[in-house]
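Inputs:
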Amino acid sequence: MGCRSCDKPKMNYRKGLWSPEEDQRLRDYIVKHGLGCWSAVPAKAGLQRNGKSCRLRWINYLRPGLKRGMFSQEEEDIVINLQAKLGNKWSQIAMHLPGRTDNEVKNYWNSYLKKRVMQAQGSIPNSLATEVTSMSTTEPPSLHHHHHHHHTKNSSGSTTTSHDQDANLSSGGISISAPAPAAEAPFDHQQHKSFVFSGDWMPTAAATAGPESYSMSAQHWPASTASSGNVTPSHAGAFGDQMSGSYGALQHQQQQGSAAAMAGGGYFDLLNMGDIYGGFAATSDDLLF
DNA sequence: AACCGCAACAACCGCAAAGGG
DNA sequence: TCCCTTTGCGGTTGTTGCGGT
């Protein structure tokens, strides 16, 4: 783990929100070189951030396979269920939610679910988490994805093609219609909230970044995920948070006609995939692709 | 139109674990 | 075995936008 070669003098790192340029630099670097020593990334990528910040940005925002938008009822149930079982083990909970990050799960819990569960426990004093869960699933499906947020910042539903296959977990099986393709939206810190993500930078970058741009094709992804859009819990568990992504929206974007922007190969070969996802390829039969 | 409060989410901070030298 | 660095995790804070007044 130690990375002595990465040693460098202390410097004043930039803080706060990431600019599109910074995102682009980080993307470019990781796409070209894969994941390695995070502390070395800022210098090599030309970023005035610390490695920690770069890592967080990649994991929570730039990493391919992320699902943006509101939580489905199914996801919500899983969070409630697992939080009751595991406590605030957000990374473990996120493993069961393909495309969701621990940070996202944590935020969703803190901003919404916690209140709802507490409310339920207040009205039903001895209620257990399972009861809370069943309560939540009794709501009319038509109301889901609207009542959660008083504001409609996240107007997108995600293309929830993935399902947690753990028998212990509930599965609502609610499908959500997808919003307009991401490629039509400029990369913007506000607008990004409203489209299905899953590497939404890929077509956007390809369309806007000029000669230095790159693109990705679904064929570069593990077949089990690229073809189905699913990452099973066993996958997620094996890879940890780094591989908890669902690539459903990637597929979706292609189906939506973004294939032209995505096609053409690029730097993103299987070798880099292995690097990016932490060297999983050699250890799991599930990953023969 | 301006202000305020709230909700959502991005990002930071601190700590602990992991791992190499 | 110890020390040091990196990584990962969870708690917390900061920022932004929306709705209400």
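The radius of gyration of chain A is 19 Å. Flag for discussion at group meeting.
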